[in-house]
Design goal:
The protein is an alpha+beta fold and about 100 residues long. The protein has one domain: 2-Layer Sandwich (Alpha-Beta Plaits). It has three helices and four strands; from the N terminus they run βαββαβα. It has helices at about 20-35, 50-70, 90-100, and strands spanning about 5-15, 40, 45-50, 75-80. Strands 2-3-1-4 form a four-stranded antiparallel beta sheet. A hairpin with a 4-residue loop joins strand 2 and strand 3.
Length: about 100
Amino acid sequence: MAKMVVSLSVVPLGTGSPSVSEYVKKATAVIRESGLRYRTGAGFTDVELDSYQQLAELLEKMEKALAEMGVQRILYTIKIDRRMDKELYIEHKIAKAEGI
């Protein structure tokens, strides 16, 4: 059961390189290891969550993993689609948008 779909982007700063793919892979691995349903896109990763607490815990885990890689600063961009009346799923949102 998911009550929100969170689209998030994690941009590490202070890495000394313009490439961020290794850091993005690590952040995605944290999501995968959490057992949450997610879908990675070109610029954002969508994650199905039930609470803001889950989001905070996920961000803390990502931050720890990236800090272990030497990241000194992280820029997060977060978009939250929150439903209080029914469940919300990534696949349903995509199907509606694509007319499937």
